[in-house]
Design brief:
Helices cover 53% and strands 5% of the residues. It contains six helices and four strands, in the order ββααααβαβα. It has a two-stranded antiparallel ribbon. The chain is extended. The model has no long low-confidence stretch (mean pLDDT 82).
Amino acid sequence: NKMAADGEEKVEPETEPALSIHEAEATMYLKEHHISELFQNFTAALVYHRPEDPKAFIREHIKQLQEAKADKEKEPPSILDESNVLSVFRMLDVAKKGYITAAQYHAAMKNMGIHFYNRGPAGAELNKITEETFLRETKISLKAALRTFFEY
């Protein structure tokens, strides 16, 4: 704080301290290699499955990721399998109409932790997203979320 010419004390706004070069390099490294996403994936899988031996589980999870990277036909590990996704759809389609609204679709994606997805899937223009479309879009989005692991 400094004294102004009229004798009143001036309060200067606080600013965030600048990152050191090492902190900035570390942050860039973590972003570049998607380390945060990797650990979020491990953490979600651990919490969902609650294995007796978490370290062995993580080793197996990494092995499955590597196998999926080597064999494009093989599905990468995911905590949400087809039955989970269909259950979400069916919970939303309480009247059993065979479709959900676009708002329900967006809320479901958010609740499943899917942040990057098709915002306008087939049927959205009519506000009627079918189970088939929901399942397809969810699978595509989950696979895309894991693609960061296959870039190396």
